[in-house]
Write a structure and sequence with these properties.
Length: 599
């Protein structure tokens, strides 16, 4: 790991922590990495020799032994990949990091191809026989993991085709993803005589100075426009690559493969999307009308969408203040959660400063159960940065608790992956609101929360609708830049409403969204999580008895149970069409509260 990392100086934030990845490996030249790679290679080959062509004949005892062996191999692969990814994320412009990350991906992909046969053969075990196996005590631990694997049965290909797809992935989709990441890391945005990183320039979209917001927005647009042909190529190629895979695997539409990976039914996500779209007028259209009034404008320009509220002190939160806020917020709900949060702060598990070459945005990397999660944020002291920190710590808590399930059972499907993070944001919001007595500041806190909710629900479903149309049309032919821009402007106009003016230059803003590139259709998970948490939190407020126990059990379960079983203790069922309405009404009521404060 690089010892010297140049941080971009921040004013009054205090000392910002950087992570220490030594808990995974001591450095890219560590002998342990080479030893682990050789061990992965050897174990994979041995596994292939021992089990290929024989999985259908294994009894429960032998099948359990095989699953245990492949879980060890998979965890070793994920460990070394996690380390390579985190190194790359901390400095994407460092050539050593880039080469190391790519080299590791290529090596483990090659080794992993030796074990592809296992899940394919597992899924070919006759149904009655597998049902007997799953009801045995021996395989109880892996029951959900096996059931989830078998859901892919009708979409799997032959072993040779699966190997080819995995091996070629490095030079197909992963290559385009790498190009996108390197483009975003290397791009510089001219602003007031400086060339800024993407993290820095986007921060100006929430600046209190309207002219600075406008200048930053136009700089973003111009820079994206100057590179738009590359982004168009990346999007076209990734969409076509996905289309080819979906066709081979007989998926009904471009979203179905994501839904299956998330272990959720197509109709549930259709219901979510339709419900949110039906609420556009009640939510985003209504709120941005209010915000335009607050800013004394008939209509907001797109660069005003995240403008600071005029009635709120644009406070800068030091790292110490942010730390105290989130620890106290989690502690208001659960002492156990606050103690876990403290561990993240006390140990070097968080990387906070903005740096040249550092990945923009924020994430919590679960790594593997034998280590611990690591959190990356780009902390600049704003109110939203505190919320983002609380959000990622929610992920961290979830990953930390679920680790006890073991490698295969700790990974949470995306349907519940945002639950802990959004719940953490809600705890932070309620904590800050409960302490604030000034009516103007209370109004500002509520408005900020509404804006975050709109960004999480309305904006993400608009992103989802954009992806759906792009991928659907790409099945028929390659899309021009104008085609993609038209789709973008249409879905944005529908979601944001008449109170926001989308100048023509805004049409290029689709190009910077990383989720479109890294994980197609991931975005609906945010809306799913927010609506789910709104409903959960309402239940908590009405009936707190046993809620903490049930909630902590949900987090600890990780992926060992399906999402419907995990929600049963709360008497919630997302398949019910009314489910989404409950979550959306929470946002609706907050906007009503803001309207009443106006009168």
């Amino acid at each position: 790991m690089l010892k010297k990392r140049k941080n971009i100086k921040s004013i009054n934030l205090g000392r910002l922590p950087t992570w220490n990845l030594n808990d995974i490996y001591k450095g890219i030249n560590s002998q342990k990495i080479n030893k682990d790679l050789l061990k992965i290679k050897k174990l994979s080959k041995n596994f292939e020799k021992e089990y290929e062509g024989k999985v259908k004949e294994l009894d429960p005892n032998k099948l359990l032994k095989a699953i245990t062996k492949i879980e060890i191999i998979d965890e070793m692969i994920c460990k070394i990949l996690s380390y390579a990814h985190l190194l790359f994320a901390e400095d994407m412009q460092n050539e050593k990091n880039k080469i190391f990350f790519q080299t590791i991906k290529e090596k483990v992909t090659k080794y992993h191809s030796s074990t592809i046969f296992f899940n394919l053969e597992l899924n070919l075990i006759e149904e009655k026989k597998m049902n007997r196996y799953l009801n045995s005590i021996k395989l109880k631990k892996y029951k959900n993991w096996i059931s989830n694997s078998r859901m892919f049965k009708k979409h799997q290909l032959s072993k040779d085709l699966e190997k080819i797809l995995q091996d070629k992935n490095i030079t197909s989709s992963l290559a385009w993803i790498r190009l996108f990441d390197e483009m975003m890391a290397s791009m510089r945005f001219p602003f007031e005589g400086k060339n800024l990183l993407s993290t820095e320039i986007f921060n100006y979209l929430s600046d209190s100075n309207s002219q600075k917001r406008k200048n930053a927005a136009q700089s973003i647009s111009l820079t994206l426009k100057n590179n738009i042909n590359i982004f168009t190529s990346i999007s076209n190629n990734l969409a076509k690559d996905k289309s080819i895979n979906d066709d081979w695997r007989n998926f009904n539409n471009s979203v179905s493969s994501r839904n299956l990976s998330n272990l959720v039914e197509d109709e549930v996500i259709d219901s979510l999307s339709k419900s949110v779209k039906n609420y556009y007028p009640k939510l985003s259209h209504r709120y941005y009308y209010l915000k335009a009034k607050w800013l004394n404008k008939k209509q907001l320009s797109y660069w005003d969408r995240n403008a600071p509220l005029p009635f709120y002190l644009n406070k800068t939160y030091s790292w110490k203040e942010a730390k105290e806020i989130v620890i106290e917020s989690y502690g208001s709900f659960s002492n156990e959660m606050s103690k876990i949060v403290e561990i993240f702060f006390e140990k070097s598990w968080i990387d906070a400063p903005v740096r040249r070459g550092k990945q923009s945005g924020a994430f919590s990397a679960s790594t593997v159960p034998s280590v611990h999660p690591y959190i990356l944020v780009n902390y600049q002291g704003k109110f939203r940065d505190v919320s983002t920190l609380a959000h990622e710590l929610g992920h961290g808590i979830h990953q930390y608790l679920a680790a006890e399930q073991g490698h295969f059972n700790s990974s949470t499907p995306l349907t519940l992956a945002e639950t802990a993070s959004v719940f953490g944001e809600m705890l932070t919001f309620r904590n800050l609101l409960s302490k604030e007595k000034d009516p103007v500041n209370r109004k500002a806190i509520i408005a900020n929360k509404v804006e975050d909710m709109l960004n999480t629900v309305v904006r993400q479903i608009a992103f989802f609708e954009f992806e759906k149309e792009l991928h659907t049309r790409r099945k028929l032919s390659e899309l021009t830049t104008d085609n993609i821009c038209q789709i973008w402007m249409k879905v944005q106009s529908e979601s944001l409403g008449p109170s926001i003016k989308l100048q023509n230059e805004y049409k290029y803003y689709w190009a910077y969204i990383p989720h479109f590139i890294h994980t197609p259709f991931y975005v609906y998970a945010y809306a799913f999580g927010d609506c789910l948490v709104n409903t959960l939190y309402s239940k908590y407020e009405k009936s707190p008895k046993n809620f903490e126990v049930n909630y902590m059990n949900l987090l600890r379960a990780g992926g060992s149970k399906n999402y419907k079983d995990l929600l049963k203790p709360f008497k919630l069922n997302p398949s019910n069409k009314l489910f989404w309405k409950f979550g959306l009404e929470v946002i609706n009521k907050l906007i009503t509260e803001l309207e009443e404060l106006e009168s």
